[in-house]
Amino acid sequence: MAISLSYNNNHPKKVGIIMDGNGRWAKFNKLKINKGHEKGVGVVRDVVKECIAQNIESLTIYAFSSENWSRPQNEINGIKKLIVRAIDDQVSELKKQNVMLDFFGDLSNWGDEILGKISKAENDTFEEHPSLRLNIALGYGGRNDIVAASKRIAEHLKSDLISSDDINEDMIAKFSQVPDDNIDLIIRTGGDKRLSNFLLFQAAYAEIFFVDKLWPDFTRDDFKKCLDAFKKADRRFGKRIED
Ligand code: IPE
Ligand code: IPE
Ligand code: MG
Predict the structure, then answer these.
(1) Which residues are catalytic?
(2) What is the DSSP letter of 33?
(3) 165 alpha carbon – ligand 2 mean position (Å)
């Protein structure tokens, strides 16, 4: 079979990352689990810098899934503390870099302190023309997002704000909690080859790269390699591309 050598010369515009492997990194280094999550926050800073350098429009990161609520309470408490600390320490730097923050997911279980911090961080970093939109999935699950979007559309139907003919892919994307549609590239670290309920609707035609490194070991250089590999992907979107 002929191997296609066509290149898409574009950079990915919208990138998603499943930042997996913090727990294994902590275990390997004989540290408490939350030290792994802490190290992981530092990696996000480096990847954000590279996104800005490479003119990426949006970076959507999976920080905590709807299923992660079933983790031990002390791990969840540690993650909550880390979120507060990350917002306190990093919003001013992100603001200087013109990065706009957007948290999404089912935010109802995070408590008032975190909700207050999130909404202040979003307001403080609001930009008409940001250098990067940084979307952070917190308590997000792709399936329950689709269920929630369907319920909202049903409410609009019931109140005659729309008719069933109006329902299309754009509307579902609009009613979804996920800030961005049509993700170009998804990277998952940690070696597992699954989506774990991330961006089920938005990743329909994403290139998906699985990287063996654990998230705390992932570097700016590793990220650059993924972006370079993306450029070599032959994105056909179902079409027959004639030679
Ligand atoms: C990903 O790392 C971060 C979260 C899910 C919060 P993990 O904590 O899942 O790391 P592993 O997979 O156990 O190594
Ligand atoms: C996916 O990782 C969620 C995040 C990275 C936030 P998990 O560690 O929760 O996924 P599974 O359990 O390996 O599928
Ligand atoms: Mg994991």
Answers:
(1) 20, 68
(2) H
(3) 37
Answer whether residue 87 is part of any domain.
yes
User: Is the residue at 181 inside a domain?
Assistant: yes
Q: What is the pTM of this model?
A: 0.95
Determine contact, residues 120/45, Cβ cutoff 8 Å.
Answer: no
Q: Which two tokens stand for residue 101?
A: 């923050």
Per-residue pLDDT at 1 exceeds 70: no
**Count of structural domains within the chain:** 1
CB 186 within 8 A of CB 211: no
Collapse the DSSP code of 180 into the 3-class scheme (helix H, G, I; strand E, B; otherwise coil) and give the result.
coil
pLDDT at 149 (0 to 100): 98
**Residue nearest atom 4 in ligand 1 by C-alpha distance:** 64
CATH assignment at residue 111: 3.40.1180.10
Q: What is the DSSP letter of 185?
A: E
Label the pairing between strands 207-210 and 185-188.
parallel
The owner of tokens 């070696």 is 191
For 46, the domain range is: 14-231
In a domain, 243, yes or no: no
1 part of a folded domain: no
Task: Write down the residue that tokens 């792709």 correspond to.
Answer: 142
